[in-house]
Structures are given as structure tokens and as C-alpha cells.
């Protein structure tokens, strides 16, 4: 087995028990997809990277144990601190590799996101990223901003794209690109999804546009529906339970 093959096998297995998925992609696939050059990542096209997704299980398997044993009174959101901790654990398992972890919440000096996790998820084939350009007939006024949204084949919209791990010195020319199938083949389905995500995201309905294997518990929904600045009480409750 080559070094690359070992990493391709090990990373998904490492994160699965704590409710994450890790899907490999080549930096070149990501850099070809992003339209603006400010988002391109400064690595050779064959460089190996993984998109890391939190599934509905992450809340019980990673987050609750994490806050039970950690003092989460710092300025960073407890979820973000927990994600940083789990990305660091992966990095520690590969001491011979130089790994850059880029989180969904990190910004460039120009205040744009450091990584477009939806594009990374799409090129890795983990999820399908739906944007208005995917509709054969765009029904919206051109002045209306329509944000794109990803759908996961098993979890619909009940997941989050947490960031990427770039194995800076590992090249994997043999990795084959495999996109997630189009889960919402008609224009009507795509329109329905984009309207739910853009205009009604608070009612969670965009997450249920497909039958799903698992979704967030009521406790997890309450947590994510609470503004980050008001989550301390919920964190305290979980710590004491
Ligand atoms: C800033 C931000 C917001 C902003 C602006 C949204 C936006 N999309 O611009 C605001 C505050 C409005 C927002 C709101 C929400 N957000 Co938000 N947000 C982000 C964040 C941090 C960055 C998005 C961004 O600025 N993108 C920049 C623009 C320019 O990128 P883009 O539109 O994708 O354009 C690129 C692609 O089109 C690409 N491209 C071009 N052609 C092609 C072709 C192909 C095939 C591909 C693949 C790509 C591609 O090139 C373009 C760039 O050059 C991301 C996390 C992240 N780091 O990515 C989360 C994220 C998009 N948000 C998310 C969510 C869930 C939400 C909310 C529901 C609130 C919440 N957190 O629960 C709401 C819903 C939206 C709404 N109706 O308000 C999720 C979406 C998950 C999913 N299933 O897709 C993300 C990914 C966070 C996460 N960690 O999971 N968000």
C-alpha cells in the first residue's frame, strides 16, 4: 500500500466513530471549480485533501462528551472549539505529514471565507451542491440573491460541512473523481430546495427534501436554533446531565 492509499483508508475510519464523514478530493478539482481566484488554495493540483462533514450523530458522539470534559467559557463557540479539537486529533495521528486544517468559520484577510466547504463537498462527491445555475430555467428576478445549498444522499440537509484537511506533501494522482448523483433531478425539485433554503431556512424544511436515514434530535435542533451568544445555558445543562 502506498502512503496515499493508507491515508485514504485511515482518515474516514478515524472520524466515523465520533459522527463525522471524511471524503477525499484533489486540490486541483476544488481550484478548477471556484470562480474567483481569491478562493483558490496554494497547493499543486494532485495534493490530497478531505472534506469533513458532521452527521446527526456528531452531537452525541463528539460534542456532548467534549463539553462534559472541557471548560467552554472562552470566546469561541463551543461547537467550533470541539471541531478544532477533533481536526487536531486527526493531525496528531499523522505526525509524519504536514496537514493544514481549514475550518468553515475561518476568514481570509479580505473577510471572505478561507474555504468554500460546499464546493469542496461537491467535488469530493460527498454531497451535491445546488446553485441557481443548475436550473434549466431560472425563475427568479436577476436582482434576487439566491444562496446555493448542498444535499447529502443519506442525511438530506441534516449535516454540516466543517472544513478540510489538506495533506500538504501528499500527492495522489491516481484518485478518481466521482460526483454525488443528482438527487433532485427536476427543475421543480431544485427550485423548491433553493426557495426553502433561502426564504424559509428557519423552519428546517430544506433539510427534508428527500427521505433521510437520520436527522437532528430535538436537543440538537434547539442547540443550533439558539444564537451562538446565548448557548451558555444549554452548554451548562448538557455538562450537568
Ligand atoms: C457567509 C455564509 C453565510 C452568509 C451568506 C451566505 C452565502 N452563501 O454567501 C449568511 C449569513 C446569509 C448565511 C446564512 C445561512 N447559512 Co451560511 N455560510 C456562510 C459561509 C461561512 C461562507 C459562504 C460564502 O461566503 N460563500 C462565498 C460565495 C461567493 O460562494 P458561492 O456562492 O458558493 O460561490 C462559489 C461557487 O459558486 C463556486 N462555483 C462556481 N461555479 C461552480 C460550479 C460547481 C459545480 C461548483 C461545485 C462550484 C462552483 O465558485 C464561487 C466562488 O468563486 C459558509 C461556510 C463556508 N466556509 O463555506 C456557510 C454555509 C454556506 N451556511 C450554511 C447554513 C446552514 C446557513 C443557514 C441555514 C444558517 C445556519 N447556519 O443554520 C443560513 C441560510 C441562508 C439564508 N437563507 O440566509 C451551511 C450550508 C450547508 C449546506 N447544506 O449547504 C454552510 C456551508 C455552513 C456549514 N458549515 O455547513 N451563511
Describe this structure as you would to a colleague.
α3 packs across α4 (78-93). It contains eight helices and six strands; from the N terminus they run αβαβααβαβββααα. The chain is α+β, with helices and mostly antiparallel strands. 35% of the residues lie in helices and 16% in strands. The mean pLDDT is 96. The chain is globular and about 50 Å long. The chain has helices at 3-15, 27-33, 58-69, 78-93, 117-123, 187-199, 218-225, 232-240, and strands at 20-26, 47-54, 99-103, 128-130, 149-151, 160-171. It has one domain (3-240). The termini are far apart. The strands form two sheets. The chain has a four-stranded antiparallel β-sheet with strand order 1-2-6-3, with helices on both faces. The protein has a two-stranded antiparallel sheet with strand order 4-5. It binds cobalamin. Cobalamin binds at residues 33-36, 39, 104, 113, 115-119, 122-123, 129, 131, 147-150, 157, 160-161, 197-198, 201. Residues 33-36, 39, 104, 113, 115-119, 122-123, 129, 131, 147-150, 157, 160-161, 197-198, 201 line the site of cobalamin.
Amino acid at each position: 500500500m502506498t502512503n496515499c492509499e493508507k491515508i485514504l483508508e485511515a482518515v474516514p475510519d478515524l472520524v466515523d466513530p465520533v459522527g463525522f464523514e471524511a471524503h477525499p478530493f484533489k486540490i486541483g478539482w476544488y481550484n478548477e471549480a471556484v470562480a474567483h481566484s481569491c478562493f483558490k488554495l496554494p497547493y499543486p493540483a494532485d495534493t490530497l485533501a478531505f472534506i469533513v462533514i458532521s452527521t446527526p450523530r456528531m452531537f452525541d458522539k463528539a460534542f456532548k462528551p467534549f463539553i462534559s470534559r472541557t471548560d467552554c467559557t472562552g470566546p469561541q463557540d463551543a461547537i467550533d472549539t470541539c471541531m478544532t479539537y477533533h481536526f487536531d486529533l486527526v493531525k496528531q495521528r499523522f505526525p509524519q505529514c504536514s496537514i493544514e486544517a481549514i475550518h468553515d468559520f475561518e476568514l481570509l484577510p479580505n473577510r471572505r471565507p478561507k474555504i468554500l466547504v460546499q464546493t469542496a463537498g461537491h467535488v469530493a462527491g460527498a454531497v451535491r451542491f445546488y446553485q441557481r445555475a443548475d436550473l434549466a430555467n431560472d425563475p427568479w428576478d436577476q436582482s434576487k440573491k439566491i444562496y446555493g445549498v448542498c444535499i447529502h444522499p443519506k442525511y438530506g440537509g441534516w449535516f454540516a460541512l466543517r472544513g478540510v484537511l489538506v495533506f500538504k506533501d501528499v500527492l495522489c494522482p491516481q484518485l478518481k473523481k466521482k460526483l454525488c448523483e443528482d438527487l433532485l433531478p427536476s427543475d421543480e425539485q431544485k427550485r423548491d430546495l433553493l426557495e426553502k433554503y433561502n426564504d424559509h431556512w428557519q423552519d428546517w424544511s430544506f433539510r427534508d427534501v428527500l427521505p433521510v436515514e437520520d436527522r437532528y434530535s430535538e436537543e440538537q435542533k434547539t442547540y443550533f436554533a439558539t444564537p451562538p451568544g446565548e448557548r451558555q445555558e444549554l452548554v451548562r445543562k448538557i455538562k450537568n446531565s
